[in-house]
Amino acid sequence: MSMKTGMWVGKILIMLVIGLGIAFGISIGTMYLWNWLVPELFNGPIINFWQTIGLLALSKIFFWSFGSKCHCHQGQRAGGPWKYYWKDKWGKMSPDDRERIKQKMKEKWCYKEENTQAGS
Predict the structure, then answer these.
(1) What digits encode the pLDDT tens for the residues 13-34?
(2) Residue 52 — φ and ψ, nearest 5°?
């Protein structure tokens, strides 16, 4: 085994140990947080380490992506598949229509400015 190969094996082992340490820390942290909050707040059960691992795996299945939803797939960037549709639609609008849409969005989503001269 050459010196370069030995360095790569060492780096891989170090990364593996760090990864396992992080996974262990997250599991222990989740277990203590669960056992601190859930029994008291919701009258739920106290769980052990392996149940915590199962809970984290279940949350991964239900809530996290497995990589099948790659946002860089097919040239899609921030904004998703609708980005180009709305960009094209916005480009075809007249300036009056754009201003009307902007005003509606501002009224719906932005805080209304308070009239500071209300008392005078």
Answers:
(1) 999 999 999 999 999 999 999 9
(2) -65, -40
The C-alpha atoms of residue 47 and residue 109 are separated, in whole angstroms, by: 43
67-72 contacts, C-beta under 8 A, 24 or more apart: none
pTM to 2 decimal places: 0.51
The burial of 38, by beta-carbon neighbours within 10 Å (0-12 exposed, 13-18 middle, 19 or more buried), is given as middle
Cβ contact 49:27 at 8 Å: yes
Other Cβ atoms less than 10 A from the Cβ of 52: the count is 20
Handedness of CA 14, 20, 23, 28 (dihedral sign): negative
Long-range contacts of range 102-106, CB-CB < 8 Å, 24 or more positions apart? none
Question: What gap in Å lies between CA 40 and CA 33, rounded to an integer?
Answer: 11
